[in-house]
Q: What sequence folds into this?
């Protein structure tokens, strides 16, 4: 522990450890739960919603988990840097909600999501540049049909790019610690959803006037399958604007979602009724 401008600060090792453990718990809990629920327990029941039929090999799981662990370490290092920038007064991170109020707190979470969506789309396209791709982004694309564990499967250089949204955001807008935590957790859940390998949304989702602007699990899975299409993260705005949605995206989505999830539940209820 030490003092800077009258404030107590923890030492580098402690900050690194706390951030790394939080990221690790989040990864194990969310990616692990998605794996157990959809790849083990419900595997047969939701097989008709599987996006690609090909099965990842044990080596794919190993690679995805290995690089995800490296990413978590790099996120810890970036976290320490942000922490030190913060205690020296270089960031707009604040810890008293009353400073800007709850309205701003929730607005900042939404703003972070939109900022991240744009940051991700353009850094992602940059990493697909033929001169950069193999040095930075190829590791993530070794998963042709990703598993939930691919969520953090990045080359260390890509992990730095992915972590970059946090320092960028806290330089340009006031962000409460809690808002940052909610944003990172939301982002990770969406990340796992993009790599889960199953489609859960309803038929017509990508064209429905209320939902078309959201990306789907099929969208990112097709990015892994076809590589140079579907670069977006949460939203479909940039892919539409830049004409980078895969030409068969909507068609593929409709094909995968032709059997509604709900109808399977109804069928089971029917069977139960008949057997009574
Ligand atoms: Zn990519
Ligand atoms: Zn991916």
A:
């Amino acid at each position: 522990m030490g003092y800077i401008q009258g404030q107590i600060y923890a030492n580098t090792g402690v900050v690194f450890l706390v951030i790394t453990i939080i990221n690790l718990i989040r990864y194990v809990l969310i990616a692990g739960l998605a794996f157990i629920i959809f790849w083990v327990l419900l595997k047969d029941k939701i097989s008709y919603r599987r996006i690609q039929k090909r099965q990842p090999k044990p080596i794919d799981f190993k690679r995805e988990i290995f690089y995800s662990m490296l990413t978590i370490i790099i996120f810890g290092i970036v976290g320490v840097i942000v922490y030190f920038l913060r205690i020296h007064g270089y960031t707009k991170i604040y810890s008293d909600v009353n400073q800007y109020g709850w309205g701003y707190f929730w607005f900042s979470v939404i703003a972070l999501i939109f900022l991240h969506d744009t940051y991700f789309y353009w850094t992602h396209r940059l990493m697909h540049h033929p001169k950069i791709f193999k040095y930075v982004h190829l590791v993530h694309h070794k998963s042709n049909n990703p598993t939930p564990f691919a969520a953090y499967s990045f080359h260390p250089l890509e992990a730095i790019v992915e972590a970059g949204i946090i320092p960028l955001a806290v330089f340009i807008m006031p962000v409460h610690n809690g808002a940052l935590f909610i944003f990172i957790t939301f982002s990770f859940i969406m990340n796992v959803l993009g790599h889960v390998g199953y489609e859960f949304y309803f038929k017509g989702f990508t064209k429905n006037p209320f939902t078309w602007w959201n990306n789907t699990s099929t969208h990112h899975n097709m990015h892994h399958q076809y590589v140079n299409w579907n670069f977006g993260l949460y939203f479909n705005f940039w892919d539409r604007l830049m004409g980078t949605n895969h030409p068969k995206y909507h068609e593929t989505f409709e094909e995968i979602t032709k059997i509604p999830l709900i109808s399977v539940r109804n069928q089971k209820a029917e069977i139960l009724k008949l057997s009574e």
About this structure: The CA atoms of residues 40 and 53 lie 15 Å apart. The pocket of zinc ion (ligand 1) is lined by residues 124, 128, 137, 141, 223 (CB under 6 Å).
